[in-house]
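Recap for those who missed Tuesday's class. We walked through two folding examples back to back. For each one, the amino acid string is listed first and its predicted structure tokens come directly after. Nothing is annotated here on purpose, so try labeling regions yourself before you check the end of the notes.
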Amino acid sequence: MLKLMKAPVLTGWCLLGLMCIGVVAVPYSFAQDEVVTEEAVAVVEESEPAVAGPESAYSSEEFMATPGYPVFAVNNLWICISAALVFIMHLGFTTLEAGLTQKKNAVNIIFKNVWIVCTGLILYAIWGFNAMYPGDAWSIDGVFAMGSWFGQSLNDASMTTAEYNAGYTWWGDFIFQAMFAATAATIVSGAVAERVKLPVFMLFATILVGFAYPIAGSWKWGGGWLDELGFYDFAGSSIVHAFGGFAALACALLLGPRIGKYTPTGIKPIVGHSMPLAVIGVFLLWFGWFGVNGGSALSADPKAVSYVFATTSLAAAGGAITSIITSYLLLKKPDVSMALNGILAGLVGITAGGDTVGVGSSIIIGGIAGVLVVVAILGFDLIKVDDPVGALSVHGICGIWGTVAVGIFSLDPEHSVVTQLIGTLAIGGFAFVFSMAVFGLMKVTLGIRVSEEDELIGLDISEHGMAAYNGFETAK
């Protein structure tokens, strides 16, 4: 237990050091960012077009005849399309995690991701949605809200007209936000891959998505204390990614490394079995990120959506390039897994401020994230924190960086580094402490790790009784 207590402290100092390096090393933004017009600054403000009509509820038929209906319909359609794009990311996470781990654990990875998205949807419906967006129904003002089944009927006219929201219906809002919710547990899935007991992980993921995520999310997106403080997180660098990353860190510390990873003679790489699968996963995630960031404009406003599409992709490209260069300098060979994680690092980094930073700044933010992710992956290995897919570095470290970067690069002068730092540490710290407590209790009572024999055989056979590639032999 003493070793477990020392590890988080050491990790904390490493995280602080990495973040200080990122902040100090930030160059000034490109000159084009210094001459951005007021029109660009107002992108977010213009992203919620008003719907014509009185405040009282229409029937659906009456509302369709009003001048505001076409705008409402297009906005709602875009929110639903964005939800579908975010849903595709769960396939991306599945293939990425499977590709970067051993083939004897591929079925286990697939099973966990199926469980996460399905239970995440149900729990978000019956508890999380209302707990995360409580309106005025806080149990503890700004900190905690009770959730419940939202239960609106299809015949409730107010849920299909402008009385609920000028941009989309109740159900469009729910399904978009629900797709985000399951992502936090998916991040944990990769970090604990290849040695965690399946039933224990299923229980932990259910608790994390069902209860912890809505609490932290409500602090900003639900109008809680971080929102009142002025904290800004456009699409979830902290609320989704740092939350998942630091939950994963707690679980990885408690679980310990895979057998044979850290030996008396040094670190032994346990290579993934399929780089093609990993590449497919990353490009599916990049594709889905257009829904994460584009949908977070909360309307189909052409300026807002197209601007965010541009900053999102430029940051991803910047992250890939700098991660390739950094890994080549440090490892002496171009590492494709580092390049893939560099793309994801850039995407995580831009998620907090994709709508409020300049285009040139988005490349810098992504580029710094690409450096940080390589350094962090190697750093976690040095302190013997085993993360098979780099989730701690991509989502945890780069989630912090992306959030703080808003305070540095934002075109809105009200965004400050101090406020951003407070927000991201509060969310990451809550996720870490919550996961350490819950997963630690499970370790004491249920046991969280499979036996050495089962780990060596592979979780596909020991946990599921089947192989992912039955009948296929690896070429010699």
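Example two. Treat it independently of the first, because the proteins are unrelated.
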Amino acid sequence: DYDGETRRHYLGVVDSQARRLSELIDKFLDVRRIEEGGFAQVEEVVDIAPLLREEAQLYEEQSRDHSLELDVPEQPLPVRGDPGALRQVIGNLLSNAIKYSPDGGVVELAAGLDGDSVRVIVRDQGMGIPATQQPRIFTKFFRGDVATSGISGTGLGLAVTRDIVESHGGRIGFTSAEGEGSTFWLELPGANGGDDGSKENDPQERKEGET
């Protein structure tokens, strides 16, 4: 017989491992659907501004060691696509920013209009990515040195994220330096396609991180 505290501990371990297995299965299925060209998109106009706020609130509550700073304009940021898939993209980037900042710190989520596109950035103050590993960062199953660091992961999150962004007609990239954190950015075609090109709400200069 186990006492109540011990039972709660083991139940917590079982629950954690079950969630991890479920996440792994979901990511394998995502990769398979994308590779087979079967990633169904919901063609609807999505204002990702409230979506970003909701994801920020969700992930801010997951770590006491991290502070999440949000810079999203009040104006709509409409794109065309699948809201569930777009949530997955932002969730993956925020999850990585927290996971690879084991000492805590600030995670920034910013968005704005950049000409006819909507631009989103996620910046952390974490481990950063060594220059030698950066060309493979979107490769399936690649985890680099973190595979031996005790930080869990499948090496599929960024591969799935890139494929979702590209399936929406967008692009994704990053800048990073080892020990100095990383900035991931993505651009999606705006649904209006007729704005005035103003960059008043652009969260960073376009040239930063472009490849």
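Answers for example two:
The longest strand covers residues 105-114.
Helices lie at 4-35, 48-60, 83-99, 157-167.
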